[in-house]
Model the fold of this input.
Amino acid sequence: MKVIRPSYEILYLPEPDEILRVIETAGRTCYKSEHKISHDSAKEFIRRIIKSGHESVIEHSFLTVKFICDRGVTHELVRHRLAAYSQESTRYANYSMDRFGSEITVIKPCFFEEGSDKYNIWLRAMEQAEKNYMELLKLGARPEEARSVLPNSLKAEIVMSANFREWRHVFRLRCSKRAHPQIREIMIPLLQELKKRVPVIFDDITY
Done:
């Protein structure tokens, strides 16, 4: 059994200047103020647009991210409906095969200190789940049947695409102190990176 930390990878994000150009053009179409476009007008215009609540304009640009996280976190991600998802399937993935290392991979829980009693109980449960899964396969169960004993902590890969307005909604909910700690563990670093890479769009979101 392998224990790993969660991670993310940005698969698609347009260049910052292109993002701002498209959004400013879309927004100024509403007000017929295209004549005010200049080489440095986009940031301030988009900042005002977002502050006014006219966020439909930022739907014209989007972001695709691949997350590696525990399966419980994916259940929270897919509740955001204005998005597209492609997720690793436990029906078709047979973790006893060589390409999976003949083992399951689980996500280390950020809320249990490694070596603590809580962590050790969790670790034993994961090891038992792996043993039960492999035994079911040896007895002839199909992967879609054997998966019934796999834990929430099972590593899952999921690709999520959404427009920037939806991502803002996701970050406001999933970076909040009230959010589950494991979804905050991946969402806060992603938000921090986007604040650096995409001017204006995510600057006002706090956590």
Remarks:
- The radius of gyration is 21 Å.
